[in-house]
């Protein structure tokens, strides 16, 4: 605002005997303040607010103030949002009679001005005296979830109450129409946004946003666990990529003593297994005997408990005979060390923190299967040329806390990652570091201090076009690190333990060998690529770029993510990981082609507004349709939660990206743009048909 206008406004205040009454008279008789943007009325109002503050002017009190408050309440529901706070402050509405304010808000609600009633309640902090279900239901029907979040944001009790209400609406026998019936004439009513599936996603988003105990929402949690069970049965009996022990661990962990889930497990067992095998697995997974149908109970009587549970299903029995098809560790088993005490770990530190050392680093965590919270690292693997160290991170952190030396572990990890004299190898290190920070918050600045780090995902992108995608037998085609291992070392990794329960102790022998292989193979890949980069289609200066010179380059702001896709333009980044740290050439929006899963329709619309080539799944579409579209049209999948676990296995490495579902569409879009290095110009906005 020009100085001249400010001076004129303040001169007007000085000439008024009663500026508060004068401002109201102006607003009541003005039309321009009802539009968008900063109107003249807005500037006058905010200048009066400053003028009162600067002059310590005490507004009227008593009867006169009450009359002014009644008048200002009459215009608050119509005025722009940017005028609410100044007017509430000027006319001291927080001091007004609370019952009078509640009555006014109730009047707005009965008129059908639900959003206005909620916003005013938020501004005046009236929520504790209101019915959260009554206030929020019409807002949810109008898809105004952001207003609902604001309504309960500062009140943990209301957050819990709202989540319990939403969970009740997700009960299997609940009829959602009972909720929607009173609001059939609601303007901007979006019934397609109000169904059990959408409500379930909203509950998980709010649980994560407000850090509420998931136990408050048993219906939604049970449904999510049921989807996890379906996914586990798909991996074991359809895709056949999960071992028997691995599958059983997750099934037991998912079902526990929940009788409803035990009943669902029985139905799945009967669908996928013969009677005798179903009975054995029911017994193995601890299903209550009174839930068993007579046919299974008879089978159980015939079984001998001492016999090992054997599989009698359609799934392939992949045993040691197949090991010859996979990458094998070239070091003896006794050189793999599982470390659970600080005394054991000190030997690891002494060997790893040596100048000139090359270390392969990987991490494992229990799959979340779409549940609330970020994954926490359960195992940290460090491979040297002659041995591999497997660090039991939860146990080491627990021991450090017991001894009052919590900083010991994070100090070592920070020393390792910030030492330019030690070469650290990884594959998709950004995702690993993110989980490491979720496990140990003291490491939050580690990513800013990285030196001497080589992310082989960047190299993988360069050789990606040369990978052979052929595979033999019924085995799934290789992808990600396994495909790179196959291309460089001749055989892929055995990934059947990838989805293991890494938090369960003791680890099985198969898990120990898998974890050691994942870290050690990085050393062999690095050595082979440095010796002969040309044979893999890489530039001859790869060795010079990779060996020990990373520390001279600018530090990265953010490492590549394990999910990161190749450049949407199809161009491969030149040189090594070092080159990508300099900041790759930004990609224009029109070159990034994506398909959004149906829980991200808002994100899809937002990205299309920015000029991206977007396809969006309909509400009724199966998540797997996204994979079909991605393969047929060369698109990147944008999804979230449990579907990510399924979809990423159906497309190439980096062609499926998981978006944070707890964010709003704008924040999700920024996450996507940043991840794929897309730069939007003014000409891109609305360049595509909406």
From TrEMBL:
Superkingdom in the source lineage: Eukaryota
Coiled coil: none
Renumbered residue ranges of the record's region Disordered: 543-585
Gene3D superfamilies: Ribonuclease H-like superfamily/Ribonuclease H
Residue span, 3'-5' exonuclease domain: 336-534
InterPro entries on file: 3'-5'_exonuclease_dom, Exonuclease_MUT-7-like, Mut-7_DEDDy_dom, Mut7-C_RNAse_dom, RNaseH-like_sf, RNaseH_sf
Annotated GO MF terms: 3'-5' exonuclease activity; nucleic acid binding
Keywords of the record: Exonuclease, Hydrolase, Nuclease
Keyword Signal attributed: no
Record field: compositional bias (Basic residues): 550-560
Cross-referenced Pfam families: DNA_pol_A_exo1, Mut7-C
GO biological process assignments: nucleobase-containing compound metabolic process
Ranges of Low complexity composition bias in the record: 566-577
PANTHER family: 3'-5' EXONUCLEASE DOMAIN-CONTAINING PROTEIN, EXONUCLEASE MUT-7 HOMOLOG
Protein name: MUT7 Exonuclease
Lineage, top ranks: Eukaryota, Metazoa, Chordata, Craniata, Vertebrata
Gene: Exd3
């Amino acid at each position: 605002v020009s100085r001249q206008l400010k001076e004129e406004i303040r001169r007007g205040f000085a000439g008024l005997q009663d500026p508060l009454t004068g401002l109201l008279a102006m607003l009541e008789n003005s039309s321009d303040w009802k539009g968008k943007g900063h109107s003249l009325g807005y500037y006058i109002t905010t200048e009066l607010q400053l003028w009162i503050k600067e002059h310590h002017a005490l507004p009227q009190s008593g009867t006169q103030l009450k009359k002014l408050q009644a008048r200002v309440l009459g215009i608050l529901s119509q005025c722009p949002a940017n005028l609410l706070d100044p007017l509430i402050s000027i006319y001291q509405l927080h001091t007004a009679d609370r019952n009078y304010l509640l009555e006014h808000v109730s009047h707005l609600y009965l008129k059908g001005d639900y959003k206005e009633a909620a916003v005013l309640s938020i501004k005046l902090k009236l929520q504790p005296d209101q019915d959260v279900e009554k206030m929020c239901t019409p807002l949810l029907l109008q898809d105004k979830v952001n207003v609902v979040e604001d309504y309960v944001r500062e009140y943990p009790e209301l957050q819990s109450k709202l989540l319990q209400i939403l969970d009740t609406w997700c009960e299997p026998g609940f009829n959602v129409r009972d909720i929607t019936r009173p609001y059939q004439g609601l303007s901007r009513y979006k019934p397609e946004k109000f169904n059990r599936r959408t409500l379930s996603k909203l509950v998980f988003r709010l649980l994560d946003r407000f850090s509420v105990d998931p136990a408050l929402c048993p219906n939604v949690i049970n449904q999510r666990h049921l989807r996890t069970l379906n996914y586990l049965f798909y991996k074991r009996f359809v895709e056949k990529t999960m071992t028997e022990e691995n599958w059983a661990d997750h099934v037991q962990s998912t079902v526990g003593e929940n009788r409803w889930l035990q009943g669902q497990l029985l139905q799945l067992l009967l669908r996928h297994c013969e009677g005798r095998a179903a009975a054995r697995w029911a017994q193995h997974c601890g299903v209550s005997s009174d839930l068993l149908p007579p046919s299974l109970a008879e089978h159980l009587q015939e079984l001998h408990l001492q016999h090992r549970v054997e599989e009698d299903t359609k799934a392939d029995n992949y045993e040691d005979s197949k090991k010859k098809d996979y990458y094998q560790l070239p070091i003896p088993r006794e050189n793999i060390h599982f470390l659970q005490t600080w005394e054991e770990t000190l030997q690891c530190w002494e060997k790893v923190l040596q100048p000139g050392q090359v270390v392969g680093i990987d991490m494992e965590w229990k799959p979340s299967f779409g549940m609330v919270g970020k994954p926490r690292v359960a195992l940290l693997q460090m491979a040297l040329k002659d041995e591999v160290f497997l660090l039991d991170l939860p146990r080491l952190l627990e021991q450090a806390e017991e001894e009052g030396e919590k900083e010991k572990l994070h100090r070592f990890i920070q020393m390792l990652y910030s030492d330019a004299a030690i070469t650290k190898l990884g594959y998709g290190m950004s995702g690993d570091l993110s989980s490491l920070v979720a496990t140990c918050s003291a490491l939050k600045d580690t990513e800013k201090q990285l030196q001497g780090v080589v992310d082989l995902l960047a190299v993988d992108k360069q050789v990606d076009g040369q990978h052979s995608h052929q595979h033999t037998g019924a085995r799934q085609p290789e992808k990600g690190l396994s495909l790179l291992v196959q291309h460089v070392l001749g055989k892929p990794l055995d990934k059947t333990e990838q989805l293991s329960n890494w938090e369960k102790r003791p680890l099985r022998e198969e898990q120990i060998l898998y974890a050691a292989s994942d870290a050690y193979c990085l050393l062999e890949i690095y050595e082979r690529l440095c010796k002969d980069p040309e044979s893999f289609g890489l530039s001859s200066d790869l060795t010079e770029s990779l060996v020990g010179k990373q520390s001279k380059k600018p530090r990265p702001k953010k490492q590549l993510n394990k999910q990161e896709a190749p450049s949407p333009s199809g161009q491969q980044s030149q040189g090594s990981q070092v080159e990508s740290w300099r900041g790759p050439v930004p990609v224009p929006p029109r070159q990034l082609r994506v398909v959004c899963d149906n829980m991200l329709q808002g994100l899809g619309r937002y990205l299309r507004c920015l000029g991206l080539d977007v396809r969006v799944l309909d509400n009724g579409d199966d998540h797997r349709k996204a994979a079909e579209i991605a393969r047929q049209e060369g698109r990147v999948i944008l999804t979230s939660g449990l579907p990510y676990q399924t979809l990423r296995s159906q497309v190439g490495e980096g062609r499926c990206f998981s978006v944070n579902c707890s964010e709003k569409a704008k924040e999700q879009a920024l996450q996507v743009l940043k991840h794929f290095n897309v730069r939007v110009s003014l000409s891109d906005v609305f360049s595509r048909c909406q």
